[in-house]
Specification:
By secondary structure, the protein is of the alpha/beta class. It has helices at 2-8, 43-55, 73-84, 103-111, 128-148, 164-167, 186-194, 210-228, 248-259, 271-279, 289-295, 312-315, 334-343, 386-408, 423-434, 439-445, 457-462, and strands at residues 22-26, 29-34, 63-69, 92-96, 115-117, 155-160, 178-183, 202-205, 240-244, 263-267, 283-286, 298-301, 321-325, 356-359, 365-368, 417-420, 473-474, 479-480. The strands form 4 sheets. Strands 5-4-3-6-7-8-16 form a 7-stranded parallel sheet, with helices on both faces. The protein starts with a helix and ends with a strand. Bound molecules: nicotinamide-adenine-dinucleotide (NAD).
């Protein structure tokens, strides 16, 4: 029996130094060594796991998880954390996005024993949606077939990224078990609403939580700019940059470009978003996309939507330009990509991750970097450094904890509702994360007073979209507050 438990319990990477061999180990002892130099531990996740296990040892033992993600090194930490609280790899179904896929991460994830759905090849420019929809449907087929055979699984947790898993969830699985979803991207929520796919079960809105909006966005902006440094001119030669979509990411990108000495023009389809930009004397904003395209040489797409739908602005450009996506999938410049695909009469399939050039009617060459996929992702397995992006992984884990609570809460489970990510859990995550961030980086990234707001759960709640539903757990002391 003990042997069985050891074999079935879950690999746990915690406790390894970076840049050395590390052990995959169970709670009962080490059982496998992996030699490589790319795994780092994430202390915020570690402390969350420890605190949660003081309350309940294996709360995920009767839960299956569908996890749609970027296959980056730190996603292994998130899987590890869920395994540490009872999730069985055999009940874990994972699909990654091909544009961020790192082969080592894929292989390690497979070695953990999960069901890993490989991405199929995208053969046409602008074809991400179709390819990924095909992949998610294949994943759901596996989930249904597998869970049909398992009577011990009572709950299904769907950690979605872009709304695909929830959109394509087979109706046959709904009603058979308790389901809770979590959406990580604002684009995913918009797509679910647009397609009328509001789920009939609780959905946790991690995308629009205060922590992600305020603290994560500058990290993404820096990663994009850092990865772009070979193509962003240095400030000795200021460039006119256009930022399309002045939300969390767009704001952070605009600030960063300005700090590098560039001229920045901002456009957002929601004019109210531009009001705050108008208050800053260094930003120029416009409510006319055509003017922005005409004036800017380097354009950053930060809207999560196809900003090239009104193709005229690009078709008539006489000047060369570079377009950089900072959002998700290949959506940001989709219409242009499809035009390039249509004009490709060579019969040779383009690599969807290569730079793409659209030639305008006046001979302007519009270069779309990395096939219109977000520029901060490549095949290195890292977008934002691990110590920083553990904030995001910890927010997902906070959502997992909230879902564990929801599965037991009769007022929530089985009913539709978009719930805010719990403010107490956000406060805990931020406090632990801040302890690990160097002072100078915090000062450079955030306004004075921004960080202290995260000590106030009321403020966090007011700035996190969704229904506020108090939960039963507190990680502060690792205790139950009440019982259902
Ligand atoms: N690259 C990454 O690592 C990364 C990380 C997190 C999020 N994202 C993605 O980046 C995108 C933006 O995220 P966010 O958190 O800033 O979202 P957000 O909702 O805060 O901001 C989006 C902004 O774009 C504007 N907008 C929407 N459609 C537009 C259009 N057609 N033209 C102009 N403006 C338009 C909205 O009004 C809003 O102000 C999302 O798709 C998100 O999924 C990318």
């Amino acid at each position: 029996m003990l042997v069985n438990r050891i074999m079935r319990t879950i690999p746990n990477f915690r406790g390894q130094p970076a840049n050395s061999s590390y052990f995959l180990h169970t709670r009962n002892g080490f059982f496998r060594t992996v030699t490589n130099n790319v795994f780092v531990r994430l202390p915020v996740l570690d402390i969350m796991v420890d605190r949660l296990r003081r309350i309940e040892e294996s709360p995920l033992c009767d839960t299956a998880v569908v996890y749609v993600h970027h296959p980056l090194r730190t996603s292994l930490n998130l899987l590890d954390s869920m395994f540490s609280i009872g999730l069985d790899p055999k009940n874990t179904f994972v699909l990654g996005k091909h544009y961020s896929e790192n082969e080592w991460v894929v292989q390690e994830t497979q070695r953990l024993g999960v069901h890993y759905q490989r991405c199929s090849a995208q053969t046409v420019l602008g074809g991400f949606d179709e390819t990924f929809s095909f992949d998610i449907n294949s994943l759901w087929e596996t989930v249904v077939e597998d869970l049909d055979k398992k009577i011990n699984i009572k709950n299904l947790l769907v950690l979605d990224h872009g709304g695909y898993a929830i959109n394509f969830m087979p109706s046959s699985i709904q009603g058979r078990m308790n389901i809770v979803g979590l959406e990580k991207t604002s684009g995913g929520l918009i797509n679910l609403v647009r397609q009328g796919c509001i789920p009939s079960f609780p959905l946790i809105n991690m995308a629009n939580c205060a922590t992600k909006k305020v603290l994560e966005s500058p990290l993404i902006a820096e990663a994009v700019v850092e990865k772009l440094s070979p193509v962003i001119p240095v400030s000795r030669e200021p460039t006119t940059c256009g930022v399309i979509g002045y939300g969390s990411i767009g704001k952070a990108i605009a600030e960063k470009l300005l700090s590098l000495g560039h001229r920045v023009i901002i456009y957002d389809s929601d004019s109210s978003q531009l009001q705050s930009a108008n208050l800053r004397k260094n930003f120029v904003s416009t409510s006319d996309l055509v003017s922005l395209v005409a004036s800017a040489d380097l354009l950053f797409g930060c809207s999560g939507q196809d900003v090239t739908k009104s193709v005229e602005a690009f078709r008539l450009s006489p000047r060369d330009k570079t377009l950089v996506s900072c959002s998700s999938g290949d959506r940001e410049f989709l219409t242009l990509l499809k035009l390039v695909q249509k004009n490709n009469t060579s019969g040779i399939a383009a690599n969807p991750l290569d730079n793409v050039v659209y030639e305008s009617d006046f001979g302007g060459k519009i270069k779309i970097l990395r096939g219109g996929f977000p520029y901060n992702f490549d095949d290195t397995g890292e977008s934002v450094p691990a110590n920083e992006i553990q904030l995001t992984r910890a927010l997902v884990f906070a959502g997992v904890i909230q879902a564990i609570d929801f599965f037991k809460n009769p007022t929530v489970v089985g009913k539709e509702g978009l719930y805010a990510l719990d403010s107490g859990l956000q406060k805990f995550v931020v406090r632990e994360w801040l302890k690990l961030q160097p002072e100078d980086k915090l000062k450079n990234r955030y306004q004075p007073n921004q960080l202290s707001k995260f000590e106030d759960t009321d403020w966090i709640g007011e700035h996190s979209a969704g229904i506020q539903e108090p939960i039963n757990f507190t990680l502060e002391t690792g205790a139950n507050l009440k019982f259902y």
